[in-house]
Amino acid sequence: MRQGDFVTRKSYGGDVMFKIERIDQLKAVLRGVDYRLLADAPLVDLTLTNPTESMDHPRSSSPEFRESLRRLAVAQVQLQEKNQHSVGHNQKVNAGYFEVPGKVLHLDGDPTYLRKSMQLYGELRVPAEGFYIPEAQMADALHRLLPQIKPDIVVITGHDGILKHRKAAGPGGLSSYKNSQNFVNAVQVARQYERNRDAMIVVAGACQSHFEALLRAGANFASSPARILIHALDPLCIAAKLSYTSVKDTISMLDIMDLTVTGLDGLGGVETRGSYRMGVPGIQHTDEHA
C-alpha cells in the first residue's frame, strides 16, 4: 500500500472509505473521503478499494448531498422570485434590484475538501474566500484573516473524532477529541472579533466534534450533537443557505436540517438571522472606457 491509495478498515467492517495520507512504519494515517474523519490504522487492517469516481470532484458525493445542492439552488430561485415580485409590485420601481449575499470565510483543515467547497461556493454564487489551515493553527490565522476579509459567515472545519483510547475525562471532556479544542479556540477568537451572532455567523466542527463546547464558545451552528460522522460538505450547505437567507428572516436548524446529509444528529445550532440583502434599483453595467 502507498500514500494516496483508497482503503477501508477491516476492523470497522469497511464502513468508511479513507485515503492514505502517509505511512509511518507499519501504520497508516488516514483521512476520510466522504466524512471528515482523521484516523490511523495498522496496514494489516486495511483493504484497498477503488472509488467509482474521482474524489477530487465535488459531484462525486452521495445522492443525499446532491439532493442538498438541488434544494439550495431551488431556495435561491425562490428568493429571486420573491424579490422580483416585491420590486414589480411597486409601480415606482422599474429598474430591478441587485443582490448582496453574505460573504463566507472558510477555514478548512483538509485541502481536498477546501477545493471542493470553493468550487461549490462558486456554483452556488456564494462569495467566499477559503484557506487551508491545519486545525491547531486556525485560532492564530483568524486573528489575521478576520480584519482582512470582514466576513458575514465564518466556517471552521477540518477533521476531528473521539480518541479511541480516551482519557479519564470521557466524552464530556475536550481532551477526548482530536481537534475539538482547536475548533473551540478558533470560535473564541471569532467571538472576540465580533460578539453579535447575527452580525457574524460561525459554523464550526467536523466529525464527532464536541457540539456543546462549540456552542458555548460562540458558534451559531456546530457538529456533532450525536457524536456521529458528518458528511464532509455539510458545513458548506449551512453556510450557503445563510448566505442567501434575508437579514429580515430568522432560521433555525429545523429549517435547514434537510440541506445536510446527517441532519440533527450531525449538526445543530441556535436561531440566526440570514445575511442576504436586496438592493434597489438594479445596478447598470456601463463601459468604463466609453
From TrEMBL:
Indicate what this protein is called per its UniProt record.
Answer: Sporulation peptidase YabG
Name the source organism: Paenibacillus silvestris
Pfam families in UniProt: Peptidase_U57
Which gene name belongs to this protein?
yabG
Give the InterPro entries listed for this entry: Peptidase_U57
